[in-house]
Specification:
Number of strands: 0
Distance between the termini: 59 Å
Oligomer: single chain
Mean pLDDT: 93
Radius of gyration: 20 Å
Number of helices: 6
Amino acid sequence: KVKTSRFLSIFDPNIPSNFSRIAMWTTGFEIFKDYPFFGVGDISLEKTYRKYKKDYYKEVQGHMHNNYVHILVILGAFGFIAVMFLLIKIFVIDIKIYKYIQDEKFTSSFALGTLGSFVSFLTAGLTEWNFGDHEIITMVWFITGLNFSIYRLCRIEKDNQN
């Protein structure tokens, strides 16, 4: 019963944290409408947010509690497209790496874990600005880079064997 109510609370807009997030996203889209091409930049986003938010929106943050809304606000459509291209490219490369080394136990497990971690990071970004969490984003880039390096080493090893 508790688990069900906790799960259903995710969709309840009357819960304060949900209301705050929805308010930030709504305000973010209002900002984006006024700065659709290149956004407002990342400096003093809190000041811009204060100008756009409704008076009854109490919480003010320096981010939008959503990676995608935040990127739209700070970088506009051009920046959003560039970032989405980068994220999709990383996702596709992670799949390619897994397929290339799937017959090797450890490295394929690491590659699959990297893919799962990346998808989890992107999914968590629907309700959080996790690009702004330095510990998290450092780990994401480290694991991604390590996966790319392992792939390269495996390719070199396979080329040397042939």
